[in-house]
What we know:
This protein is mainly alpha-helical.
Amino acid sequence: MGWFSRKKKEKVNETEKIDNSINIEDSIKKIEELKKELKNCDSIKKVTLLNDIGGIYYKILDYDNAVIYYEESLNIEKTIGKAYTNLLNIYNIKRREAAVNKDDEKLQYYLNKIDDMMKISKDVVRGNV
């Protein structure tokens, strides 16, 4: 004990992280509204809508759908923001799940996805986008 002792982190199951104040039905309705808007918008508005849809899916822990919308958003406009951060978090969650399940193929897949995200951050910082 002393200056350099570490505090023990409490392990929190990912499914326990969901905010109880989020109404799943309302979230799904909002997603449907945003998807309708998505059909008739310019590219600037499209990125915002894709990030909003991905963000709602992220909040309700539907990571697979969140990935779809976040990746599409980053394909249009490579930026480091909430979408980038959430997508990186999802890849890390999926990587951990693959490691626990001893699924080497998925583990490598998500490690490659994380590497791709690091390349995006380097490109953005260097102004190569």
